[in-house]
What does this fold into?
Amino acid sequence: MSMAHNLSQCRLLVKKAVAAGAKALFLPEASDYIAPTASETVSLVQPASSSPFVLGLQASAQEHGLPINVGIHEPSPKNQNKVTNSLVWINEEGQLEHRYRKLHLFDVDIPGGPTLQESNSVEKGTEIVAPFSTAVGNVGLLICFDLRFPEPSIALRRQGAHIITYPSAFTIGTGKAHWSALLRARAIETQSYVVAAAQVGSHNEKRASYGHSMIVSPWGDIMAELSGEKKDEPEVAVGEIDLESMEKIRKEMPLLRRTDVYPEI
It folds into this structure.
């Protein structure tokens, strides 16, 4: 699908989110495009400042007064032959306010299964971005394969996160096996809300994604889940962020880390 088509789909989700009374919209990883090859991934990339996809979402955010969290590709600042897998926060005024670059890249070669080498085209990120205040709480940004590593989410919780994001394009096989279990685990161990907007269906002849976008409570309950089937129109899930309930869980089940025995994350 073209970036223009993907932008139109995202703009439709903006309208659905506004109609549902949402205070923020969380979109998937790589919402601008998913290319079939590493070379195409690099050839399609544009700076956020001139990308019609990003500029279009900035205009939508400003028009509707709705913050948007969206996964995009950006040129690597280190290597002209690579991109970054970025997650940006566009505030309600349409300004690109925060940016996180994916730390853990998906490099896998499964006999009889998929072979994906994200590092062929993507430059890995180098830092955890501190949580920032929003209308729905303090948001900490992570992406897809980061989900398999508990350390970044624990670090974000320590820094004050209320919500941790995992926008994704999970493969179908790993999604069936691990998606729900990992999201619930990250929510339970950080006592935070987890918001995981997920790509769904076929992207090209080489890639298809699991879907099942999910919102998980700090107690590990699945508050909302979308389907694993591509529909005629993109779907939106809505959940209520109750920070008082979250603080009650944290108070009644204190997780006191033994940093005298093992390092603080």
